[in-house]
Amino acid sequence: MIHDPQEYTFKEFRKSGTKHKKYDAILINKKTKREKKVPFGDKRYEQYEDKALGLYKNLDHKDKKRRALYRMRHSGEDKAKYSAGYFAWKYLW
Known about the structure:
The chain has helices at residues 64-73, 84-91, and strands spanning 8-15, 21-29, 35-42. It is of the alpha+beta class and 93 residues long. Strands 1-2-3 form a 3-stranded antiparallel sheet, covered by helices on one side.
């Protein structure tokens, strides 16, 4: 988890090497220039629409009711900038 998102800038998405994760969001620390990896999205489950790299478009369900239920269950996660929940909310749901 990123404690101070102002210290980072978003660089790119990559296919994740972490077990069961779809993507890694790559962040760069502004001071140290070191990369930080934030894995998100579970390969075993569908999402509303893959807007990251599109590698899991076959798992898009486009069901607006499921999307609404997900967003109710995970409300507030879009506020924690650069967290796994933030990236899932913005790019998968």
